[in-house]
């Protein structure tokens, strides 16, 4: 199939589990072109002029929200942010009500972040605008998955055949899940590692390798993706102390050396330096962490463009 | 007034009866059961090709009255029961206020006489206010007609309270019914813990939480030498623990629900809140173990755990939705479709679990067909094809995991005390 024939199948972007590889490739290819816009002096393409995007964030995330906001603005769309805590539910406004209110304002896209798994699916069932999942609980974070793939491809030239180690709190990580689906479909070999208390039971049933020893996952890895550890998990008794976590599971120079010499180090941010990742390597030669942020913008621009322009490839749309 | 049910396949599990014949009803009671009964002056129901069974008994429903009538009340709940082929149901005490005193038991019994269309039995709370601290007035409630005692709706954390509850309830020869699932282990989970929860990122409720609680509860019943009934068994481990306990003579009985017998956690992939229930829908190996348990008698009853909720309560994100759904009107269709038409269980086996089995556990004289007994009878068309449409339910609970499914098998007529109260899906009272 030539690129021009691929288009996004569904109205909404809910996750990578259901997204075919060809669509992911289309998004990554489009993102490459979008990245050129970011590097220009005047970062404006009039492509989405007259379109309206609402960032509906029930959970704080300056990083993802800003990225979506700039992505929309660089493409000329009108973007507004609605930050609300899910305590609005307590006030009697249900998610259904909120979505219908936003829909009534005539928006084209709702970018939604919510702490409940499946909330993006729920929104897609209810609302007419395009729903882009910007993270639903521990379920999926598709744009993060895509930007991670984009970053790997940028440095490694490919995804197929690479060994990717994802290390940390897999249990609560939407980033891990989106990465697993995306990378698997693109032919990478995914290894997960972390303390047993932070690994979902039976996750190995989806065809990935799971390790308790970080060293086993890192061995000869092409990419090491380090996940954020939330300190609240320690209060919940899922690991004994930050000190012990850093010592046994933290990624430092010595452990990173087990991976291939040119292995790429990634982190979705924000980082707990000294906990899951050592400060020296976070900013070291192998780190792609800054680039991930930039690529996030490019991927989100690509996605907004594709979902609004009928899902056809950028070249075909010109 | 005479009624003759003619030429049906009569299945009466209490006596291992499975014959084609007639049943004559006179003055609300069964007057004769035989190959050919006298028809003079009787209204005749042609039951040729249909199955005639003792009125079905559902020992586990949530009627929501008193206090939560927006979800359900006696009038709507018993009509749903009639539509589902049930002639007797037992309601759980987790209402507001809880059914934890003889006054509430007596009040509901009175209400059931005027509002109800099927027979209503009441299960009293084990602890005051279902708070799990002090015993409720169990003896008083039983003397006012409560048929069993339970804090269902949640797990009893206090091992000591359950021990005293079993000892005390046991004196009256009544069972304690437990919702056995260790809450600490279930850990505020939203679904079965396994490969599907791993993918969805939804916090899981591990099957071992049920296994451990069932083991504890059975050990206490054994210690107290008192009857215990394990509600809605859903795990493979629990089935095995109950099986072993029965072998060594513990007074334990158990039930499984139509949904746990026919659905798996795979259904949750769409995040449809209609599938959210406690204990959660588990994986296929657990479902297979439940069916084995029914087959070999480890599980004595099929009970719906009918738990209606207001529509908007379920119309939210998965984790915020309450657990449970309407079960009375789909039970027969689901069980026949999933267990009978697939050849997993025979019709007499299924009818036993839906009538005689639960009646025996609650010490009721229903669930059997015998001359002189009240004529509570259900007539079922095992071949009737229909599609579930929640909007048409008599219950106020408009959520069902079986919505839009095609089922094969349906109760066509429900008779209570000799009166037809439901015919062709329509409740006549
Ligand atoms: Zn229960």
Describe it.
The complex is a heterodimer of chains A (318) and B (429). Chain A has 318 residues and is α/β, with parallel strands linked by helices. Chain A folds into 2 domains: 136 residues, 3-Layer(aba) Sandwich (Rossmann fold); 152 residues, Aspartate/ornithine carbamoyltransferase (Rossmann fold). In chain A, 41% of the residues lie in helices and 14% in strands. Chain A has 14 helices and 9 strands. A 5-stranded parallel beta sheet of chain A has the order 7-6-5-8-9. Chain A has a 4-stranded parallel beta sheet with strand order 2-1-3-4, with helices on both faces. In chain A, α6 packs across α13. The longest helix of chain A has 20 residues. Chain B is an alpha/beta fold and 429 residues long. Chain B has 2 domains: 105 residues, Urease, subunit C, domain 1, CATH 2.30.40; 310 residues, Metal-dependent hydrolases (TIM Barrel). Chain B contains 14 helices and 19 strands. In chain B, strands 1, 2, 3, 4, 5, 16, 17, 18 and 19 form a 9-stranded mixed beta sheet that branches. In chain B, β18 and β19 form a beta hairpin. In chain B, α8 packs parallel to α10. The longest helix of chain B has 18 residues. Chain B is globular and about 65 Å long. The two termini of chain B are 18 Å apart. At the A-B interface, α5 of A face α6 of B. Bound molecules: zinc ion (ZN). Chain B: Belongs to the metallo-dependent hydrolases superfamily. DHOase family. Class I DHOase subfamily. Chain B: It comes from Sporomusa termitida. Chain B: This is Dihydroorotase.
């Amino acid at each position: 199939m030539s690129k021009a024939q691929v288009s996004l199948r569904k109205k909404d972007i809910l996750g990578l589990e259901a997204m075919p590889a060809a669509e992911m490739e289309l998004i990554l290819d489009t993102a490459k072109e979008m990245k050129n816009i970011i590097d220009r002096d005047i970062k404006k393409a009039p492509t989405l002029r007259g379109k309206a995007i609402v960032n509906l964030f029930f959970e704080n995330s300056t990083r993802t929200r800003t990225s979506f906001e700039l992505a929309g603005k660089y493409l000329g769309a009108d973007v507004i942010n609605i930050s609300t805590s899910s305590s609005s539910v307590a006030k009697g406004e249900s998610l259904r009500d909120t979505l219908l209110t936003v829909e009534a304002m005539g928006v084209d896209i709702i970018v939604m972040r919510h702490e409940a798994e499946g909330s993006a699916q729920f929104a897609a069932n209810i609302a007419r605008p395009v729903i882009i999942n910007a993270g639903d609980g521990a379920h999926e974070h598709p744009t993060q998955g895509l930007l991670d793939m984009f970053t790997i491809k940028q440095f490694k030239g490919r995804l197929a055949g690479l060994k990717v180690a994802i290390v940390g709190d897999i249990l609560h990580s939407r980033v891990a899940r989106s990465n697993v689906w995306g990378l698997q479909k693109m032919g990478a070999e995914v290894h997960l590692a972390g303390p047993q208390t932070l690994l979902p039971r039976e996750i190995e049933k989806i065809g990935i390798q799971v390790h308790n020893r970080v060293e086993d996952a890192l061995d000869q890895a092409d990419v090491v993706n380090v996940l954020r550890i939330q300190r609240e998990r320690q209060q919940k008794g899922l690991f004994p102390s930050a000190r012990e976590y850093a010592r046994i599971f933290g990624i430092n120079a010595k452990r990173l050396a087990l991976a291939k010499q040119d292995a790429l180090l990634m982190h979705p941010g924000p980082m707990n330096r000294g906990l899951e990742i050592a400060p020296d390597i976070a900013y070291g030669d192998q780190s792609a962490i800054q680039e991930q942020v930039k690529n996030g913008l490019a991927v989100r621009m690509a996605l907004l463009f594709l979902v609004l322009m009928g899902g056809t490839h950028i070249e075909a749309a010109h | 007034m005479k009624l003759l049910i003619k030429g049906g396949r009569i299945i009466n599990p209490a006596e291992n009866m499975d014959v084609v014949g007639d049943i004559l009803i006179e003055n609300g009671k069964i007057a004769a059961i035989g190959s050919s009964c006298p028809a003079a002056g009787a209204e005749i129901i042609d039951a040729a090709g249909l199955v005639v069974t003792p009125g079905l008994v559902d020992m586990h429903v949530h009627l929501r009255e008193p206090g939560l009538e927006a979800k359900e009340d006696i009038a709507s709940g018993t009509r749903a029961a009639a539509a589902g082929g049930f002639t007797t149901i037992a309601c759980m005490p987790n209402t507001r206020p809880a059914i934890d005193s003889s006054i509430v038991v007596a009040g509901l019994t009175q209400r059931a006489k005027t509002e109800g269309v099927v027979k209503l039995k009441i299960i009293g709370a084990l602890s005051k206010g279902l708070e799990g601290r002090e015993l409720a007035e169990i003896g008083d409630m039983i003397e006012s007609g409560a048929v069993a005692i339970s804090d269902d709706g949640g797990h009893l954390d206090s091992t000591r309270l359950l021990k005293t509850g079993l000892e005390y309830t046991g004196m009256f020869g009544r069972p304690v019914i437990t919702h056995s699932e260790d809450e600490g282990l279930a850990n505020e989970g939203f679904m079965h813990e396994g490969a599907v929860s791993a993918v969805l990122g939804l916090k899981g409720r591990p099957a071992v939480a049920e296994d451990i609680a069932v083991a504890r509860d059975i050990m206490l019943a054994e210690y107290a030498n008192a009857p215990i009934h394990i509600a809605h068994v859903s795990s493979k481990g629990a089935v095995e623990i109950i099986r072993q306990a029965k072998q060594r003579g513990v007074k334990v009985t158990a039930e499984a629900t139509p949904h746990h017998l026919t659905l798996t956690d795979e259904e949750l992939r769409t995040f449809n809140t209609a599938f959210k229930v406690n204990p959660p829908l588990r994986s296929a190996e657990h479902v297979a173990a439940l069916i084995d348990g029914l087959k070999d008698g480890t599980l004595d009853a099929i009970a719906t755990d009918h738990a209606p909720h207001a529509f908007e309560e379920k119309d939210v994100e998965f984790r915020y939705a309450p657990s449970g759904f309407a079960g009375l009107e789909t039970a027969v269709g689901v069980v026949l479709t999933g267990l009978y038409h697939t050849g997993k269980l025979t019709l007499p086996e299924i009818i036993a679990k839906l009538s005689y089995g639960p009646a025996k556990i609650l010490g009721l004289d229903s669930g059997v067909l015998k001359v002189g007994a009240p004529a509570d009878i259900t007539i079922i068309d095992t071949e009737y094809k229909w599609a579930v449409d929640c909007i048409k339910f008599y219950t106020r609970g408009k959520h069902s995991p079986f919505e839009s499914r095609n089922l094969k098998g349906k109760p066509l007529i429900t008779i209570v005390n000799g009166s037809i109260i439901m015919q062709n899906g329509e409740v006549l009272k």
